[in-house]
């Protein structure tokens, strides 16, 4: 996995650190923010989340290459961030 | 223990006419079906969604649709679609090289990259109007090599099939075994004997007297991995036996494919291709019925033999003069499996380097 980064919950302003050895959904769950997941490996699309700011690093196989390049949504069960902060539409 | 890089008979075409067929071949659970263009396809019998057997589904527009949640599988093992779900990230399942030929569906359960359809053994009697074929399928709980032993040593006919094809002369005339590369042949020629009941029926079926002395022959040909073709017949004595003109003899080939299901079970495809009265469907049916009864007599013997061997793995067995055909056939199989193991080690080493 890539280095740690931060995610911000747009609706509350809460910021959560995602360490290198945890997924976004795991880090958010520890902070009390639950995102529904199913496959946990970027296949099913259950956890699809809109990205308002920042650039996600896509590790899923659900989005098309074009959708990934748009960088306005990602799958937090497996994907990460290439910017220091991602602002999520949660 | 069986070679996996080889063609095996998996089923007959009629078994997949109505829908998919789930069948284990050499330890692999496989779903066979007719895909796009009615062409036979074979994929792992395992839905990538929840592990359901795909063979319980149905074929729709050339796709195998899972009977649990409607996942549509392509014949290359890649998921094509699923209701309410994107499938582009689904992991592929295995697909197997498969071919419909000579009245059977053949599958290659090993490394797909090595499968060459040209190596499917040619069956001369198929699509040749001089021949007629009838056969059936038994499931038998025995190592496929016990069936090879059985077919490469026909002295058992005297005892297991005493009321149909057995006769004491089989015991009295020694057989001869020869090896040519991967092919093993065991033959026996009996002269001036009385035809046993099955051959009397066949003589009558071909319009020949059944109450005169005959010459009888049995030529068993093993082709790896799991086929034994036996040329059998009788001719009115004194006309040249095996080489007698057609009007004096009844001549057939017993067709046997013993496809391993597991280490200790087989799908046994048996049949008889005959070169007399090929147009006579009633004769085909009566021969199939007679052969089915005769071959079912082997079933109990082989299953209980297998149970004995499993219960006493430490016991040594005797390989006698009558067993030469089976022994040589097993040597061919051992050689094939050694080569497969060596190639497997080589490819693993190559990948690591």
Succession of helices and strands of chain B: EEEEEEEEEEEHHHEEHEEEEHH
Instruction: Write the CATH homologous superfamily of chain A.
Output: Beta-grasp domain
User: Roughly what percent helix of chain B?
Assistant: 10-25%
* Total number of domains of chain B: 2
CATH class of the largest domain in chain B: Alpha Beta
Outline the low-pLDDT stretches of chain A: none
**End-to-end CA span of chain A:** 23 Å
Helix content of chain A: 10-25%
Number of helical segments with 4 or more residues of chain A: 2
Which strand order spans the largest sheet of chain A, edge to edge or round the barrel? 2-1-7-3-5
Report on the structure:
The complex is a heterodimer of chains A (90) and B (353). In chain A, 14% of the residues lie in helices and 27% in strands. Chain A contains 2 helices and 7 strands. Chain A has a single domain, classed as Roll (Ubiquitin-like (UB roll)). In chain A, a hairpin with a 5-residue loop joins strand 1 and strand 2. Chain A is an alpha+beta fold. The longest helix of chain A is centred in the N-terminal third of the chain and has 7 residues. In chain A, strands 2-1-7-3-5 form a 5-stranded mixed sheet. In chain A, strands 4-6 form a two-stranded antiparallel ribbon. Chain B has 353 residues and is α+β, with helices and mostly antiparallel strands. Chain B has 2 domains: 112 residues, 3-layer Sandwich (Rieske Iron-sulfur Protein), CATH 2.102.10; 205 residues, Alpha-Beta Complex (Naphthalene 1,2-dioxygenase Alpha Subunit, Chain A, domain 1). In chain B, strand 3 and strand 4 form a beta hairpin. In chain B, helix 1 runs antiparallel to helix 6. Chain B is globular and about 75 Å long. In chain B, 39% of the residues are buried.
